[in-house]
Design brief:
The complex is a heterodimer of chains A (about 850) and B (about 375). With about 850 residues, chain A is α+β, with helices and mostly antiparallel strands. Helix content of chain A is about 25%, strand content about 25%. A seven-stranded mixed β-sheet of chain A has the order 28-31-32-38-37-36-35, with helices on both faces. The model of chain A has no long low-confidence stretch (mean pLDDT about 95). Chain B has two domains: about 20-105; about 125-365, Bira Bifunctional Protein, Domain 2 (BirA Bifunctional Protein, domain 2). Classes of the chains: A alpha+beta (about 850), B alpha+beta (about 375). Chains A and B meet through helix 7, helix 10, helix 12, helix 13 and strand 28 of A and helix 5, strand 1, strand 2, helix 6 and helix 7 of B. Bound molecules: zinc ion.
């Protein structure tokens, strides 16, 4: 809502000299979101005067333009000679002339200057040059004949210096979509009287106007018509009116339309004007019938929905109520008799129609936020008055008033409720004063009063504790005790509320999972990885690039109805696509040695999911309903993704570097598991996007928790990553859940250690981890630790074989081991590998 | 040197003469003192303290003396040997120290050289700031609550007093989950976690909820469709707006420094009533830039205050929908955008830097914000 300060001043006696900025500040403190204050005409200095065109000579130019060489009477003895590029004026017209020495908005200084072969001593101004915005004429401003004396100061005349407050009206403050509403707030903020622009004398007789029937009283509780006949459709809207429309962000069109818009801005009541000659029969307000169509004012034919509320006449639909009128009955340049509609529509009906037709109009924006239902008769009167005054119309005293709207009921709550909500000592009489200031009627001592719900202590309040407050008609948002408390507290001043830190009962700090997540992230950073974030949106192209087969479960996704991009309609089921794209971007920017990670949810649809219910908000949903809400959601486990590219250690003065490969990826996965005290079981698997021979599956307690390894060469290629880039993806929730809940300390032996090395030749396909497990099993409880320290393949041991060398460490808790004991344990260990893998001990 | 004493000649045992012992000792002391390095000292030791050294040989002659002469000779030789041993040890210590010093000097390296173990990586600042916020409130005894990102519409809107056709619901620019009518959305704020907290816990409830949220905004310098919020919720007996202010003041001080405070400006949110915007006293100029063109402040645009978030007293209708007795309990809630917080707190100028995943962005923060 754009509010020119001059317009506001008409209804509120603001302190003299107060600026738009200052008023804005005050309104912000009162709870209006004043986004900007435009200082129209800021920096404008005269002389800027009214001039009369004495003569002009059209002079065609080489560039195809025709300029006019004009002489003007600006109130001096001598005519003023200027060059003008516009042609929308005639001799005798009154125009606005800026003279040398003046400065136009934007710091545009005017001097006599040579142009098109003349010395132009000033300029005839257009609307935008005056800072008034485009008036649609593509020419200069031409004043009405007799509008002003020649030589009059045009800055004053046209109100060129004005501040305009741009207010973002929150959904609960529909009444502030009007000068009237903002004036009310300003009056309260400054503690001055409001001159209510709706306080008009009604001249209608309340009956006998243009016939109207309302079939749906719930959707349309008020419908008022007034008729004005004999207007001059060619009568121009007066400058002040046009100016206010322009400053408020609307384009002047014709007197009929301008007046309805003006009244809407002033009072907040949307008005629709019909050309009476084009109406046929009774106006009927009813819901649409499926299949009905209407061509709206914007010349679009719209299919109507059975839920749409329509204004109709004998010809059929002539408007979507509260949203947009129809083209067939529109006021035109030949309209002389106007039927004015001022109605009250249900906000939800209008909101739905507006959304359904993707049509948000000035009218619908207001109706959606609910308009004062007491306004229609006054607004219709105001339109009629203005049409009579400005366009020479005659107001018919006959008036149609259909009015079934309910007056607001009083709400009773504790007199000190606002103080209880605020935690501040707001005296009861002050509370009442503030409530009255926003337009409420407050009654005290009503023995029959019953405390409204939704207030602390309501059930124990006696009638003597209560006040009964009736909200004003323009505040449908005031319905619960806290709504009224807000009004009191904002006028009391949020700044006057004390600051008290509440004491929480002792908490338990972060949860185990929260702590583990932090430790994992810290460990990854310690290992040189950098955390990144990315969007969770993916599409088929991602799965294709990763080589994910068509029947892979990861392609079954949660899809968005309105994705940002049709290419990426799905929520991620794996972190790798977006992480690979992030890696691609980094590599593209020169970071070829990359180690990045991200933790994020993935979204796994449930096969049997049903739509989420929408339980009543009148009480807590039942446990079944709550369960149904949860069950409607996909599973959303937290995943960790890692991508490593390029070198893990660089080449340097110490020698050759190491490329980041499958083993680094697997090690990252192992380390992450180790952070939470888990030792995963590994095995080779084939899974996209990994290299079929270089992908480790990690599992804990038989449950797969993720994969790590080298990426498939085609995937590296698809994402422009260095060859042998590798990646990890782990289900962190599953991993963290597998961590021990507590660790019990074991005593450790102080007897000497016995070291034994074992080299075993096994088939190349045998997993080192399995051989190790066999050794551990065979060695028994004397084994303290085991470590694979060498891997050999080559001629010495033959094709299809490999040699694995392990360092075994034995120790007993209670004695020094004898050589016999150690060698027996070693032999037992080897024996298991022989039995299980046909292992052969390698000697020497 | 004399050979072994084969003859019994108690009078003529020259090496045991006082003069001779003294001479032998002085000679040895001189040799030790002159030994220039450990090898020379070792040589001198063999010569003057070894098995065949004069002093050792002299010692063997003692037995040849008459009993009455043995004591005196023994003392003489013993004291000479002690003197030699002391001298040797002293010289050895000096030479060893010199040797070590020389060795260490030759082992000097250039400690500024790089090494190949990976350097420390970095957290993303959004994670760091989330954790910092969580810690501020955990220290107050609050729990850190979390919830899913694909959320039931009812929890995202209805439970929070967003009525189905209310403009406030339209203003949220929601991503809807396919198919229409699934009743699920990408959560548009972290507030459904509040609803979940109220549905699953009994008052007193003190929770802070950091998390990722979604709106259908296009990415530009100041907007991103995927962003992070943090919300706090308290439901307890006797909770008032004053408690909200106290909590916000504490939060401001914890995040931005002593002496700062929050300011509330009335506003509208469906889930709180009264509702307010939270402004933060500018932590850079502390208001000194207001009306002072000589000291403009980029952080607050010389306004003195920085818009930070929204807050209010929990609308009792929200408590009702979540099964909390509005007659007994009241609450407050507040929420902030973490990207915005990083922008003004840490001088991040472009929202896109935060979401593009360029490692250079995270790395400038490391583990600290
Ligand atoms: Zn500042």
């Amino acid at each position: 809502m754009r509010v020119p300060l001059s317009w506001l001043r008409e209804y509120v006696e603001l302190p003299a000299g107060v600026t738009g900025r200052e008023v804005g500040e005050k309104l912000v403190r009162a709870g209006l979101e004043v986004e900007t204050v435009d200082e129209a005409g800021d920096g404008l200095t005269g002389p800027l005067v009214v001039g009369k065109v004495l003569s002009y000579e059209p002079e065609p130019q080489k560039n195809g333009k025709t300029i006019r060489w004009c002489s003007l009477d600006v109130g001096n003895d001598e005519p003023q000679w200027v060059v003008c590029g516009a042609s929308n004026f005639e001799v005798g017209d009154l125009v606005v002339v800026v003279l040398p020495g003046a400065v136009l908005p934007g710091g545009f200084a005017i001097s006599a200057r040579k142009t098109y072969g003349h010395v132009s001593s000033g300029m005839i101004c257009s609307s935008s040059e005056l800072g008034l915005g485009d008036d649609g004429t593509h020419g200069i401003v031409v004043l009405q004949p007799g509008e002003a004396e020649v030589g009059t100061d045009a800055i004053e005349l046209l109100g060129l210096r004005d501040d305009v407050l741009d207010i973002a009206v929150t959904p609960d403050r529909g009444y502030c979509l009007s000068i009237r509403g903002v004036a009310r707030e300003a009056a309260t903020a400054y503690g001055v009287e409001l001159k209510d622009p709706a306080a008009l004398t009604l001249t209608g007789d309340g009956s006998g106007g243009y016939p109207v029937r309302v079939d749906d009283a719930e959707a349309c509780s008020v419908f008022v018509t007034r008729t004005v006949t004999g207007i001059d459709p060619k009568a121009p809207s007066p400058r002040w009116l046009q100016q206010r429309l322009v400053m408020s962000g609307m384009r002047p069109i014709s007197i009929g339309v301008d007046v309805t818009n003006y009244v809407m801005l002033e009072l907040g009541q949307p008005i629709h004007g019909y050309d009476k000659a084009r109406l046929s029969g009774e106006i009927v307000v009813r819901r649409a019938v499926a299949g009905e169509k209407l061509m709206t004012l914007d010349d679009q034919t719209r299919e109507l929905d059975a839920e749409d509320l329509l204004i109709t006449d004998d010809s059929g639909p002539i408007g979507v109520a509260g949203v947009m009128g129809g083209a067939s009955t529109e006021i035109s340049e030949s309209t002389t008799d106007v039927v004015i509609e001022a109605a009250h529509f249900h906000p939800i009906v209008i909101a739905r129609s507006s959304r359904r037709h993707k049509l948000s109009s000035e009218a619908s924006r207001r109706f959606e936020r609910e308009v004062d239902p007491e306004l229609p008769r006054y607004a219709a009167q105001r339109v009629a008055d203005l049409l009579a005054e400005l366009a020479g119309g005659t107001i018919e005293p006959a008036e149609t008033v259909v009015d079934t709207h309910l007056r607001p009921e009083p709400v009773s709550f504790r007199a000190d409720h606002a103080a209880r909500v605020a935690g501040a000592p707001i005296p009861v009489d002050e509370s009442i004063r503030h409530l009255q200031a926003v337009g409420c009627e407050v009654a005290q001592g009503n023995d029959a009063a019953v405390a409204a719900p939704f207030a602390v202590g309501a059930s124990t309040a006696t009638a003597a504790d209560l006040i009964s407050v009736t909200p004003p008609s323009w505040r449908p948002d005031l319905r619960d005790p806290n709504d009224f408390a807000e009004e009191v507290i904002r006028l009391f001043g949020f700044d006057n509320v004390p600051s008290v830190l509440p004491k929480a009962p002792g908490g338990q700090g972060l949860t185990v999972a929260q702590k583990r997540r932090r430790r994992i992230a810290t460990a990854l950073v310690g290992a040189g990885l950098t955390e990144v974030v990315s969007y969770p949106f993916v599409g088929d192209a991602d799965f294709d690039a990763m080589g994910v087969p068509a029947d892979d479960a990861r392609r079954t996704t949660v899809k968005l109805a309105n994705p940002l991009s049709d290419e990426e309609p799905s929520m991620q089921t794996t972190l790798l696509p977006t992480l690979l794209r992030t890696a691609e971007r980094n590599v593209g920017r020169g970071a070829t040695d990359l180690a990045i990670f991200q933790t994020s949810l993935v979204f796994l649809p449930r096969a049997d999911s049903k739509p989420a219910p929408l339980p009543s908000v009148a009480q807590r949903p039942s446990d079944d309903e709550i369960q149904a809400l949860y069950d409607a959601l996909p599973e959303q486990p937290l995943h960790l993704g890692v991508v490593l590219t390029g070198s893990r250690t660089p080449t340097g003065w110490w020698g050759k570097g190491q490329p980041a490969g499958w083993a680094d990826a697997v090690q990252v996965a192992r380390s992450v598991a180790a952070v939470v005290g888990v030792e995963p079981v590994l095995r080779n698997v084939e899974l996209a996007p990994w290299h079929p021979g270089r992908c480790a599956e990690l599992s804990v307690g038989g449950k797969v928790i993720g994969h790590a390894g080298e990426l498939h060469p085609k995937v590296c290629q698809a994402y422009g990553l260095p060859t042998r880039s590798s990646a990890v993806e782990l289900d962190l929730d599953a991993l963290m859940a597998a961590g021990p809940s507590s660790v019990s300390a074991q005593p450790f032996s102080s007897y000497p250690i016995a070291k034994e090395d074992v080299a075993l030749i096994v088939g190349a396909e045998v997993a080192a981890a399995d051989v190790e497990a066999a050794l551990v099993e065979g060695a028994g409880e004397l084994l303290e630790s085991i470590r694979l320290f060498d891997l050999y393949t080559g001629e010495q041991i033959g094709e299809g074989k490999k040699s694995l060398a392990f360092a075994l460490r034995f120790r007993a808790a209670d004695r020094t081991l004898t050589e016999t004991e150690v060698s027996a344990a070693r032999q037992a260990a080897v024996q298991v590998t022989v039995a299980r893998f046909n292992a052969v001990q390698r000697v020497g | 040197m004399s050979g072994p004493n084969k003859n019994y000649d108690p009078v003529e045992v020259t090496p045991l003469h006082a003069d001779e012992v003294e001479r032998t000792r002085d000679e040895a002391l001189d040799a030790f003192a002159k030994a220039a390095d450990l090898a020379a000292l070792q040589e001198a030791k063999v010569a003057h303290l070894g098995e065949r050294s004069p002093i050792a040989l002299a010692n063997r002659e003692i037995g040849a003396l008459p009993p009455q002469g043995r004591k005196e000779a023994g003392q003489r030789i013993g004291s000479a040997r002690k003197a030699l041993n002391d001298a040797y040890a002293g010289r050895l210590a000096v030479l060893e120290a010199e040797h070590e010093e020389r060795m260490l000097a030759t082992e000097r390296v250039d400690v500024t050289l790089p090494w190949h173990t990976p350097e420390l990586g970095a957290r993303h600042p959004l994670s760091l700031i989330s954790e910092q916020v969580a810690d501020v409130f955990a220290a107050l005894g609050w729990d850190v609550a979390e919830g899913p990102e694909v959320e039931a519409e009812w929890l995202n809107f209805d439970a929070l007093n967003f009525q189905p056709d209310h403009p406030a619901r339209q203003m949220q620019d929601t991503f809807f989950v396919d198919p229409a009518g699934s009743g699920t959305v990408l959560r548009t704020h972290t507030s459904p976690v509040q609803a979940r907290s109220m549905l699953t816990r009994k008052p007193p409830i003190y929770v802070i909820c950091p998390g990722r949220v979604f709106r259908t905004d296009e990415l530009d310098a100041t907007h991103t469709p995927v962003f992070y919020q943090v919300e706090g919720l308290v439901v307890d007996e006797g909770i008032t707006l004053a408690h909200l202010k106290g909590t916000l003041d504490h939060f401001v001080v914890s995040m931005f420094g002593e002496g700062l405070e929050a300011r509330l400006r009335p506003n509208f949110f469906p889930f709180t009533e009264p509702s307010a915007e939270v402004d933060l006293k500018c932590f850079v100029c502390r208001g000194a830039s207001v009306g002072n063109p000589d000291r403009p402040c980029r952080t607050c645009g010389s306004e003195g205050w920085i818009e930070w978030g929204g807050c209010g007293v929990v609308n009792p209708r929200v408590l009702q929908a979540c099964g909390i007795d509005t007659d007994r309990y009241s609450g407050f809630a507040f929420g902030m955008g973490l990207e915005r917080t990083l922008m003004f707190r840490n001088g991040v100028e472009d929202m896109r830097d935060m979401v593009e995943g360029d490692v250079r962005f995270s790395r400038q923060f490391g583990m600290e914000i």
